[in-house]
Amino acid sequence: MIDPTPNEKAAMDNGGRMGGEYLESICKTDLAALTVAEWDCFIEAVVTGYCDHLRDLAARDRARLDSMTAEVPF
Questions:
Q1: Of 22, 20, 7, which Cα lies nearest the Cα of 53?
Q2: What is the CB-side half-sphere exposure of residue 61 using CA atoms within 13 A?
Q3: HSE of 67, CA atoms in CB hemisphere, 13 A
Q4: Which residue in 6, 25, 50, 65 has a CA-CA distance of 20 to 30 Å to 15?
């Protein structure tokens, strides 16, 4: 990713945390030691954590922008 936005950086941090939580839950830290199924779950945790957080941030931004829009008086 070239020049990530603040929201993308925050989403990457969240995705990384989710991947780390998954690794902690299976008591493994060596990615080379993961089985194919474990690798798939790890990647799913990272990508889901990234996408979900980015979607949440976008919704907050949208709500904030919508609240700044002046209402038309007619």
A1: 7
A2: 9
A3: 6
A4: 65
Instruction: Round to whole Å and give the CA distance between 29 and 20.
Output: 8
Q: How far is CA 68 from CA 49, 54, 65, 73, in A?
A: 29, 21, 5, 15
The residue to which tokens 């799913």 are assigned: 44
Contact (Cβ atoms closer than 8 angstroms) between residue 30 and residue 42: no
**65 pLDDT more than 90:** no
CA distance 36 to 25: 16
Closest CA relative to residue 46, chosen from 3, 16, 6, 4: 16
Please give the structure tokens belonging to residue 65. 């922008």
Residues of the chain with pLDDT > 90: what percent? Answer: 76
Look at the chain and count its residues: 74
